Structures are given as structure tokens and as C-alpha cells.
């Protein structure tokens, strides 16, 4: 027997009475010793575990400064970040800060009920659009791609993006169609003020024209210098919704205004097909689309596959990919009016009045067929480019 286990022997008075026999007494005594050893091991392990779990707090080298207790008035306001780096990282959530904070989305919290409300603030991008933006093409050089590949922070950003995409419910957009047929918001009762309005982004895609330039076209040069009704859709259901705003059968007064504008007003359609198979099917039936649209309007029908990021969708209010959206854009590419889903009678009337108002503003500013866009600091317009009428 090991010598260090001799002190674990039980005293004779604690040994239970057993039947006589050397084998039985030896076996019982061995089991009691083994149980005692295991008990001691467990007790020593539990003590050491508690010591590692709850270490003693060391006194600080210098006393910590006392932080003032915030008052009731200051507790309601958010405190600014302590450092410029923290201020840079503290980006506002567009879903919470924008005018569509409570609208249903394809991600986030699932809503049980929703009633659309009129837009109370302008929607759009903060910077003017430029031709060649939002193409969806990676223009980085090999050196830049290599640097991004070995950048751990870039990997973390990519990981967060993939996690958000995987967590997005596939049928959420279909489920949100139960709320007023997917209507995200109501059109504002009047136009947004020009100095407060935000910009429509540039859409890059191909048009219905049979030219080489039609394979890579931008919407920004087409919008500058004209009042434009833009419709964005990605399915037949959404296309039928935008037709309730601007088709000749649903809104004949709108087409009368466009015809009388002398080319200063137009309609642009943007068909967003991010799925490669659906985009291929649409391209396969482009001949059918050309037969339904006037030849002079082929350059105003865009098939967009890439470039419509989540940030852009949040900014312009495209929160449901199965819903159609209609925008009224002025000659400086600013969103002055917006509608979603099926058009109400008041929204149709508001669209016609808004277009007339834009044409009056353009007339006062001298915007005509000889209009030349100038930099914003020099006057109206966004860039030095002659507008072809």
C-alpha cells in the first residue's frame, strides 16, 4: 500500500460490521479507502475552481475619477462619442433615422400589423448622381484586391454582410404583401421643397435599343434637364402596380401633360432583375417588350442587374422587392414626390399636379431645349454637359 494513503484509513469504530471472512473485509476496506481518496480529490478540485472563477479584486494603482451622475434632462439625450474614432464608427441606422422607420422590411423584426402613412420627409441619396456609378462591377486593381484579401477588417466586414444575408427570411417580402397589397408608404400631399430634396441614384443597365451603346447605359444623363416619372419594379405584379400611376388607361391626364410639355417631361422604367436566370429570361423576350413600347421610348426602358445595394434601397424607400415604386424627379435629379404599390385616386391627382408644378419651376429657371447643365455653385444643373433633346 502507498504510504501517503495511510493517513486516510478510517478509525476502527467507523468501520461497519461485516460478516467474518478475510476476502470480504479486505474488499470493503479497499472500497472505503478509494471513496475517501475520490472525496479528497473532488474537494481540492472544487476549491481551486472557485479560486479561478472568483479572483480577488486588486486595488487600483490610482483612484479612479468620479463620474458625474447624469441629470434627468441629460439622460434623455444621447451622449456624443468620446473620440473621433468612435464618432466615425457610430454610424446612424437608416432604418431608424429615416422617414420609413416603422415600415415592414425583408429583414429585422416581423410586424403583425401595419398601416402606411404619407411621407413626411424627403427620401433619396445625399450626393448628386453621376454616370458610371452603381455598375456593380469590381474596378479594383490586382494590388488592391491583394491588400483587401489580407486585410482582417475587410474579412470581418464581409463576414457580417454574409451573416445578414443568410439571416434574411426568404418569404418575408411575400408575407409583407398582406399589408395593403405591399404598399410601403403613401405619397406626400405636395412636392418636397427643392432645397431640401434628396437625389435619385444612378441606375446602370441595358436598354431596349439595338445599338452597342444600349448594352451599357446610365439613367443620369437621361434625367438631367427634364421632369421625369421613374418607375422601379422587379416582377409582373410590381409592374402592374406602377401602371396604376402612369399608364394611359389609369392616368390619362398625366399623358396629356407629358404630350403638352414639348419634350421636357418623360417616363423612365427601371426593371430590376438581380437574379441571373430571370434577367436572362427577360433578355430572351426583349422583342416582345419592344413591341409593347414605342420605338422612341426604347432608350427609356432599363434592365438593371447589379448596383442596387441595400443602402440605396433604404435611401429611396425600396423596402419590398415584390412592390412597384414610382418617383417624380426634377431636372436636377432630385426626388420631389414618391409613391408605392397601387395608386389611390388622390395619389394620381397629386402626381399630375406635381408634374405641372415642376414644369412651371423649369420655365421660371429658363430650362428649355437649349438648357445647359452647370455646376451647382454656378446655378442649376449638376455637371457641364449639354442636354440632348
From TrEMBL:
GO CC annotations, alphabetized: mitochondrial inner membrane
Compositionally biased tracts (Basic and acidic residues): 7-16
InterPro entries: ATP10
Coiled coil stretches, renumbered: none
Compositional bias annotation for Pro residues: 57-68
Domain of life: Eukaryota
Ranges of Low complexity composition bias in the record: 69-80
Biological process annotations from GO: mitochondrial proton-transporting ATP synthase complex assembly
Region (Disordered): 1-22, 54-136
PANTHER family: MITOCHONDRIAL ATPASE COMPLEX SUBUNIT ATP10
Protein name, entry field: Mitochondrial ATPase
Species per Swiss-Prot/TrEMBL record: Rhypophila decipiens
Record lineage: Eukaryota, Fungi, Dikarya, Ascomycota, Pezizomycotina
Amino acid at each position: 500500500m502507498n504510504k501517503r494513503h495511510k493517513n486516510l484509513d478510517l478509525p476502527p469504530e467507523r468501520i461497519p460490521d461485516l460478516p467474518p471472512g478475510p476476502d470480504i473485509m479486505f474488499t470493503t476496506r479497499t472500497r472505503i479507502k478509494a471513496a475517501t481518496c475520490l472525496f479528497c480529490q473532488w474537494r481540492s478540485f472544487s476549491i481551486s475552481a472557485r479560486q479561478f472563477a472568483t479572483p480577488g479584486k486588486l486595488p487600483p494603482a490610482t483612484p479612479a475619477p468620479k463620474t458625474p451622475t447624469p441629470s434627468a434632462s441629460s439622460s434623455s439625450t444621447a451622449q456624443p462619442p468620446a473620440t473621433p474614432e468612435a464618432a466615425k464608427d457610430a454610424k446612424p441606422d437608416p432604418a431608424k433615422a429615416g422617414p420609413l422607420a416603422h415600415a415592414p422590411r425583408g429583414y429585422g423584426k416581423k410586424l403583425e400589423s401595419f398601416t402606411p402613412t404619407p411621407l413626411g420627409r424627403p427620401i433619396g441619396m445625399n450626393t448628386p448622381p453621376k454616370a458610371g456609378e452603381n455598375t456593380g462591377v469590381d474596378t479594383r486593381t490586382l494590388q488592391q484586391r491583394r491588400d483587401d484579401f489580407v486585410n482582417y477588417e475587410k474579412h470581418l466586414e464581409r463576414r457580417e454582410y454574409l451573416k445578414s444575408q443568410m439571416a434574411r427570411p426568404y418569404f418575408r417580402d411575400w408575407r409583407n404583401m398582406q399589408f395593403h397589397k405591399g404598399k410601403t408608404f403613401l405619397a406626400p400631399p405636395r412636392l418636397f421643397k427643392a432645397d431640401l430634396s434628396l437625389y435619385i441614384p444612378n441606375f446602370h443597365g441595358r436598354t431596349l435599343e439595338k445599338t452597342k451603346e444600349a448594352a451599357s447605359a446610365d439613367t443620369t444623363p437621361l434625367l438631367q434637364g427634364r421632369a421625369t416619372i421613374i418607375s422601379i419594379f422587379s416582377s409582373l405584379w410590381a409592374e402592374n402596380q406602377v401602371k396604376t400611376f402612369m399608364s394611359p388607361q389609369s392616368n390619362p391626364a398625366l399623358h396629356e401633360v407629358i404630350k403638352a410639355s414639348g419634350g421636357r417631361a418623360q417616363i423612365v422604367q427601371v426593371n430590376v432583375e438581380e437574379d441571373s436566370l430571370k434577367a436572362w429570361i427577360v433578355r430572351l423576350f426583349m422583342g416582345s417588350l419592344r413591341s409593347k413600347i414605342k420605338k422612341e421610348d426604347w432608350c427609356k426602358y432599363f434592365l438593371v442587374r447589379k448596383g442596387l445595394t441595400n443602402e440605396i434601397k433604404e435611401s429611396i424607400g425600396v423596402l419590398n422587392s415584390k412592390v412597384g415604386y414610382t418617383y417624380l424627379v426634377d431636372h436636377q435629379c432630385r426626388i420631389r414626390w414618391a409613391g408605392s404599390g397601387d395608386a389611390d385616386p388622390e395619389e394620381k391627382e397629386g402626381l399630375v399636379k406635381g408634374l405641372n408644378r415642376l414644369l412651371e419651376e423649369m420655365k421660371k429657371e429658363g430650362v428649355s431645349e437649349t438648357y445647359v447643365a452647370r455646376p451647382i455653385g454656378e446655378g442649376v444643373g449638376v455637371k457641364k454637359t449639354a442636354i440632348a433633346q
